[in-house]
Amino acid sequence: MTVPVPVLSLRDLTVDIPTRHGTLRPVDQVSWDIARGEILGVVGESGAGKSMTGNAVIGLLDPPAHISGGQVLLEGERIDDLPLAKMRRIRGKRIGMVFQDPLTSLNPLLTVGDQLTETILRHLDVDREEAAQRAIRGLDEVGIPSARNRMGAYPHEFSGGMRQRVVIALALCAEPTLLIADEPTTALDVSVQAQIIALLKRLCRERGMAAMLITHDMGVIAETADRVAVMYAGRLAEIGPVAQIVGQPRHPYTDGLMASTPAASAGQARLRQIPGAMPRLNALPDGCAFSPRCPRAQDRCRHDPRPRVGEADARAACWFPIEPEEDAA
Amino acid sequence: MTLVSVKSLTRVFDVSKPWLNRLIERLPKRHLTAVSDVSFDIPERTTYALVGESGSGKSTIGKMVVGLLRPTSGHVEIGGVDLVTEKDRAAIDRVRSDIQMIFQDPFASLNPRWRVRDIIVEPVAARGGDTTGMAERLLEQVGLSADDVGKYPHQFSGGQRQRICVARALASEPKLIVCDEPTSALDVSVQAQVLNMMSDLKDEHGLTYLFISHDLTVVRHMADTIGVLYLGRLVEEAPPETLFTTPAHPYTAMLIDAAPRLDAFGREVEPPEGEIPDPIDPPKGCAFHPRCPLAIDRCTAERPALKPFGPGRVACHRAGEITLKGAA
Amino acid sequence: MSDLPDATRQGPKPTERLETAEVVRPSRWRAIWDADLAWSFRHSPVAMVAAFVTLALVLAAIFAPLVATTNPFDPSSLNLMNGFSAPGVPNAFTGETFWLGTDDQGRDVYSTILYGLRISLFVGFMAVLFALVLGVTLGLLAGYLGGWTETVIMRVADVQLTFPSILVALLIFGIARGIIPIEYRDQMAIWVLILAIGLSDWVQFARVVRGATLVEKNKEYVQAARLIGRSSGAIMLRHILPNVLSPVLVIATISLALAIIAEATLSFLGVGAPPTQPSLGTLIRIGQDFLFSGEWWILFFPACTLLALALSVNLLGDWLRDALNPRLK
User: Fold this and answer.
1) Which residues of C touch A283 (CB under 8 A)?
2) Which CATH superfamily is domain B2-223 in?
3) DSSP per-residue codes, C61-123
4) ipTM score assigned to the predicted complex
5) Partner B contacted by A190 (CB < 8 A)
6) Hey, is the C-beta of A279 within 8 angstroms of any chain C C-beta?
7) Which chains are adjacent to chain A, needing at least 3 Cβ pairs under 8 Å?
8) For B65-116, how does the pLDDT look when each residue is reduced to its tens digit (9 = 90+)?
9) What residue stretch is flagged as signal peptide (chain A) (predicted)?
């Protein structure tokens, strides 16, 4: 029996930023797989390295940041060492991207129809007529009403939510196998956010597409993702199925993060809080980066080399993870 | 006792193009009604939350309450004094020192060239008050160290800056603090710290909050009364538990249902339809009727008034006719 | 301030202290040396050479009476017999050697350059200072008050921009000459020059400051100050002004180079510094008369000095602009 090749595999992916005060490491030995049709939610607070990980996968790191170690495998094939021109072919064709601000992904001077048709022509072997047909189908699929008539409209003629739908249509028009969505709903209102989440879920299911959904919003992750990766200070803190991460977190940071969302403590007078803030990358503590804020930290956490996900069958990078039978206090 | 009384508050912005463009392109003047006939009271020592999506006018109301913006019509009275019409300088000065505000962006709300000490005592120093030891004391109250007074804002993280903003707001010993999205720029774990601190300070200092947010979960946690805004109109007002369990306005119900929930993995919801209409040309009658599942002919013609309903108030022609689903 | 590391300090809530990822505070000099600006300076050979040349010329001008061989404008120290001595060649009549030669009246070119440099730099500095104060004030008022104040100030600025600044300076110079009685003209010439150059140069300060003010006045710290009841004057001076000064510094440096050239141009045209107080421009005008009769040095050395001064100040300004602009890093 053959194990299916995951759509995306990260193997100890590491990103370095050399600065004149020393080298910063915003992504430190991160590993995970995303299977076909699976949505992996990547959560973390600002500075956790989640967007940097996404940019490293699509080869869009801003210099001087660069991949300094590990591998990125797309359907079993290494893409982190490809030359720029080849990487450009892969972006858009095999990896679709959706960012927070839809306006940055759209050319304001071209009609939506032209942008879609051009993208399809560049990546797929079809004629112009067929490309236009596919563009209309794409807009229809993401829920743009009367798609055929809207082909001639410019990006500014759409509302914020509709624009993000157009960006999704653009990301998906070349039928990629992997979608990377970086905070796709953060700029949107609650009611529109719900629409976009439902759309992303439906498209991944229908097309069997893998997705990496990067967000800081636990609620969005809980509703959308199949599995969740929690990042802290550039490192993977915990990874697992969404029900376990939200319901029975094992890493004390995940536990604190979930508990400090106001939704989790409805009806209580005080929110649970994690003391302190994430350390800056130039001042990471020894051992486990979370140890100074951790209620369970012991000497070992402060001195031993940091624990890693996957060692000794653990899904949390913690020496003293919360055991399932413990009542999450 | 009522501290803040907002009466038929309306604010219209002129969003016309420059007159030359209007002349050449033959365009009419365009007006945006950001806030339309909003009335509510805030009793002393309570938290009143205004919640709404973009274009709901919540920040505009906040600015009018603190006096940064003049109402087009209607009044804001704080302790019985209307800052716009009051003639007595002493009364104006007293009310001004009773009001403070905390802003959304902790990076823009502190002058980057000032030391923390000067930032915090400014509300008092500007009136010539004694500020000896004040900055140190306030910093410790908001959970920072008294040693930090000589630092500049860029030496602090977002959460710490928001604490400095709170310290500045407390300096003049105000009665009312208007908080405009105070935690939406912060990370969740830091947000919890700041919200807890704000709750503690409210009890210690007997503060009244007008809390403006788009985040229902935060509002539910903080507020004693919640006012829901849609396109500049107050559509519902109720205590949080009533609002979340039995919303009376269909927009409130939609908003609660659309908010992502932590316990909702695998939830397959029918997302709400449509988007917020253009506030320059809002729908006739009830502004929500094009998206409302309950709309009848009357809703398209006649704007519903805000009427008492249960423990709160609601502006809906069909309030009470149908039980709406709420969250647990 | 205590220089102890955070951990040894007696904080009221130890956990909160963790938010500051701060190290031991270095000494003041160390801090200045390590600052981004100083670092960028140390890594820009062009800036260092330009700064050296500028500094050397400024010092030479300040200490002109000490480093000059003669005071060229003290008639008693002049010997007409020394006229037209070529550089480095002993004079046929007096046997004296002048390394940069002499002019028609026997003045040492080296000494006239030093004294001319004084006038040029003085006029340049004062004119820029005048333009800066005027431009920053009007720019602040226009940006902060808006309305008709802004309309009037910026329209005047726009109209002035449509004329070449040298023309504006000529106009102002002409008017001033008309007003001032003839017996004060030579005395007042320098001040008229400063006024003329300053008035022709305030527009760019005003425009930049107005733009920066428009950005700053909508920031929330300004709203917080308004809320307190601070007057517009206090807000402009204490809050906005310190935050709009860095672009002003860049413009001031580049303006200095332009003002020195403008002064030289006016003096060259014969409407600037009088022959009794010759600036570099006046010297060039004088030297020009002898260029075709073979006495090239009378023009050449003052022109080289002007070139070195204007070029090094300009390069310094360019470096400052790049160093202060985070987007170019």
Assistant:
1) 21, 23
2) P-loop containing nucleotide triphosphate hydrolases (3.40.50.300)
3) HHTHHHH-SS-TT-GGG--GGGTTPPTTSB-TTT--B-TT-B-TT--BHHHHHHHHHHHHHHH
4) 0.85
5) yes
6) yes
7) B, C
8) 999 999 999 999 998 889 888 888 888 888 888 999 999 888 899 999 899 9
9) none
